[in-house]
Amino acid sequence: TIVDRQTVGSNYTFVIAGGGIAGLTIADRLTEDPSVSSLVLEAGPFDKGEDGILIPGAYAPYLYFWPNLVTVPQAGLNNRSIGTVCAKVVGGGSAINAMVFLRGDEGDYDAWSSLGNPGWRWKGLLPFFLKSENFTRPDLTFARAGNISWDDSFRGNSGLVQNSYPNYFFPCSANWWNAAKSISLEPVKDPSSGDKQGIFWIPTVLNATTMTRSYARRNHDDRVIASRPNYHVLASNAVTKVLFRGKQAVGVNYVPSGGGSSSTVYASNEVILAAGCLHTPQLLQLSGIGPPKLLRKFGISIVVDLPSAGKNLQDQPTLTVPYTSNPASVGANLEPNSGTLLSNATYNAEQRALYDSAGKGPHTIVSTLSTNIGSLSLRGATAAYKQIVAQARARTPADSLPADVEPTILEGYKAQRSLILQQFENSTVGVGAIHWGTADSAVIYHEKPLSRGSVAINSTDPLVDPLIYYMTVTDPIDLQVYTALFRKHRQIFSAPAMRALDPVEASPFGAQLVTEDEIAGVMRDQINPSNAHQCCTAAMMPRELGGVASSEQKVYGVAWLRVADISFWPMQIAAAPTATMYASAEKVGVPPKPLGFFPDLFLLVTGTQPRSLWLRTPCRTMTDCGAAIACRCH
Ligand SMILES: Cc1cc2nc3c(=O)[nH]c(=O)nc-3n(C[C@H](O)[C@H](O)[C@H](O)COP(=O)(O)OP(=O)(O)OC[C@H]3O[C@@H](n4cnc5c(N)ncnc54)[C@H](O)[C@@H]3O)c2cc1C
């Protein structure tokens, strides 16, 4: 049921802050049990089914950006303050993202597991990847012509997220593909297999029947909201604070997103934070969970002294390299490309008519992208990987963090750094991706930063944006890795198949940039610190390693509070996040099986009904469980 401020209840089994990928997926799964009620509070509105949301070729993410987010000056990027984005709409990032639907590499999740999270290895997560998606194969003749390949054993067929491919490719994307092959980037059988180093078509969240976006509002919300009276969504209202009784989360306060009076809603079971990487730590801090110095500065009473809440911020910095090409020699070879829809109104109108009548053509491709991409391990990017790793090992990890870093955070960072350096030596784990949208620029993504940022409140007013410190490339090794990715990209553009299109690297880049220092110098001016893939600000890691939440996403130091969005990831993966977000939300939303539980005894001890006791997460460990004799742990 879609509720408003008049009809919303005051008590639910679960209250979920944030209706993005995690929030909607988990609410859907929890309310499969009719005895459980769930309220999702979402700061953004419902979208209106605009073309910019539904039609890939009309992509308009700015319709639902969180407005005016900007970073603090970034020391590694010549002190630039840079606009940064995340979603504010029911469905969260899934409603406005670029529809890329990629899994990370096996080693990414195995590293999560090594950080104290058994069950979060690739093998533990694979069943949830399969559960989350419904893959539709492309037409086989088209797949052969376009070099699309996949392995059915890695694709799910019964999930709710629609996964398929555009049915068109721009002719010149074949030049990029052949150029990449000619420098030994091999086609990958299936990028969803846990090893995707090489080149491949980008799987997308595309509904193959309607050829429109598949997003959490459609696949997890619209599907059930009318038929489940136990499932409520209140849009355009922002959670402002988690309420505690002692150390137990009991509910939240919320206000209309445009401002207004505060209301309270209680959760008889759990409060689940799913407000995304930039806002979940803000909520924790406003609620008294965070670095004590910061909380004291704003006069916030400390509920848990947890210095790591808001730290460990990671993103996937993005570098756009502009190109000009010689129209006289290239001309028809390059057209149409992904820019033609914008530059040629007649072509756009013709292709839109084709899409509307037959669901075909370039409008099935997200307008800012083309159809193929390359994923690179550091070994695959540069023969000098050993020197880079040696220099990284020689560096003191504390030098990559603020001088006053808290000791547990430093220990956790050392553990992460060591795992990332192992990945650098391993040819099966990605560190970056390279893409050419077929028009006048190419993009290079740096996926495994060693630099760490943070998010911190700047006011006790919950409607004031937090301060965002990405700290991009403040660890100098990051620039070395990024330069290696850039050089690999250049090799592709210098290969004969691309030279046939005569692309010329344009200012501020250009052939005059040769040395490491020359390239890095321009990069500092050009890198965008974010690809809107922010993560990890409430990391699941042991508390003594600077973790904020346990491997069951339970926030340390309090009961009945979990973090379910991308904040709980400990480290970045070598992929865009959506596929892993859906899979991790499926995993978080699964009821653990109760083990030998004695309901009558529970009633006797606690005086409450043992309804859906598996949901009562404090029972998962003996130490958490007040009535240990009745709460059998699982
Ligand atoms: C422009 C853009 C392009 C992207 N492209 C891709 C892509 O192509 N492929 C890919 O895999 N990933 C992409 N991403 C990233 C991906 O969408 C996110 O990583 C993912 O949505 C994160 O899921 P989440 O559940 O953690 O948070 P989100 O989906 O971001 O949801 C968080 C929700 O919480 C709400 N919220 C915040 N604060 C509050 C509050 N106080 N109270 C109530 N609600 C609140 C927000 O409005 C938001 O709707 C993109 C993201 C953006 C913004």
Automatic annotation (TrEMBL):
Biological process, per Gene Ontology: secondary metabolite biosynthetic process
Binding site for FAD: V89, N97, A98, M99, V100, V239
Database matches in PROSITE patterns: GMC_OXRED_1
Pfam families for the chain: GMC_oxred_C, GMC_oxred_N
Gene Ontology molecular-function annotations: flavin adenine dinucleotide binding; oxidoreductase activity, acting on CH-OH group of donors
Coiled coil: none
The entry's keywords: FAD, Flavoprotein, Signal
Keyword Kinase: no
Domain Glucose-methanol-choline oxidoreductase N-terminal span(s) in chain numbering: 87-110
InterPro entries registered for this protein in UniProt: FAD/NAD-bd_sf, GMC_OxRdtase, GMC_OxRdtase_N, GMC_OxRtase_C
Cofactor(s) named in the record: FAD
Domain of life of the organism encoding this protein: Eukaryota
Keyword Calcium: no
Family: Belongs to the GMC oxidoreductase family.
UniProt-listed PANTHER family: DEHYDROGENASE XPTC-RELATED (PTHR11552:SF115), GLUCOSE-METHANOL-CHOLINE GMC OXIDOREDUCTASE (PTHR11552)
Name of this chain's protein: GMC oxidoreductase-domain-containing protein
Lineage, top ranks: Eukaryota, Fungi, Dikarya, Ascomycota, Pezizomycotina
